[in-house]
């Protein structure tokens, strides 16, 4: 990708959970890439913190290993890596007791530089950390706090978390990450809609038949047994990533890219989502759990065997959602996501209405409705499916072809990880790609009744074989309406 690097102001980046998985896999590698692209100004520092006692050098060794493991070798530049490691230091601190916060304060010093406190820790620590940051007088006007999901497990717990953090930080200082919003293609969705005059006149119930949003994964539980079994796919994926995608597809044009202008529009969509209550849940939702099968080229265990105990947690969800406003009246949004599915693909399909009348005879073949397929990952790109005449003699035979724009082919180079963009936005203080408190709460308000309906009625979790597209009920969910899931390959 051809990119333009705009340096950010000097900053101190303090990672709570510095020795954890997120720091290792995403934060340190992303920061390294920004260093390599010369986006930092001096002096910029990175301070790791966690409960473990560790010297600066030991943490630097941890960071070096993280980068060597998670950055492709062709991007590892020895001089840049050394320079990067020289920015790093470490302070042991206990989030609950406050032990070590004095040392943290001494390490940060009393500069007025931008300070980003990144909480890559369990949400149960958000309250304690923000309280101690305040108690030890570490919060300056130029400070921001970054929160990682899960932001609650229902509306009440989300409110509680927001209250705890909100006692110590203003909303304009709180950056709630949904890493999907940092993906290039997700931002491109906004460009597609609002930088082109072509689609907007058609972007409504008069011309769009329905929308499909699929986020399919081939991975299973990975190492997240405890978290995942308590969460399930509805909380883990739908409450955040899928609803954020739905918002970007469905929102009105904001007046600008200003954070609140965009978030106001997303909030309206979330509030317009039709509640799915107990009676409707069986008809509008499907929950599934993978059984043993084959995925990513080999045999894999079922969820229960992987977990090592019985569980009713869903690893697959499909939902028929409706947005109650003028633009989207009677346009269903079909959402589906799952682990151990047939292939890894995230895409949004906008299916337009069929033509009102065909002038071609039977010999022309079927005329398919136009589809706009926005592929978020992998093989990022946009395809507009249209009907054309099959070239050559043989009468008027019609054929569907894609106008294909593959981003990978159009833009050469490395596609930055979502975290790179998001971390730089934290430093810039730009909240456009972060969730506001009311958005998170509105999303939970829609999710809670579904979760309650499932728990109340014990709506069956349907088994599906690993490596397939989920339970057959998910196919029935869309086919009952005379539609089919787009075949993603
Ligand atoms: C995370 C979920 O938020 O997103 C994971 O907790 C999921 O369960 C992941 O695997 C998917 O992210 P990506 O970027 O790989 O699509």
Automatic annotation (TrEMBL):
Domain Glucose-6-phosphate dehydrogenase NAD-binding: 14-188
Record: residues binding substrate: 179, 183, 217, 236, 339
UniProt enzyme class: oxidoreductase
Transmembrane segments: none
Residues in Glucose-6-phosphate dehydrogenase C-terminal domain copies: 190-486
GO cellular component: cytosol
Pfam families reported in the protein's UniProt record: G6PD_C (PF02781), G6PD_N (PF00479)
Residue positions binding NADP(+): 51, 149
GO biological process: glucose metabolic process; pentose-phosphate shunt, oxidative branch
Entry GO MF terms: glucose-6-phosphate dehydrogenase activity; NADP binding
Active site positions: 241
Job description of the protein: Catalyzes the oxidation of glucose 6-phosphate to 6-phosphogluconolactone.
Family the UniProt entry places it in: Belongs to the glucose-6-phosphate dehydrogenase family.
Protein name: Glucose-6-phosphate 1-dehydrogenase
Organism: Aquamicrobium defluvii
Organism classification: Bacteria, Pseudomonadati, Pseudomonadota, Alphaproteobacteria, Hyphomicrobiales
Name of the encoding gene: zwf
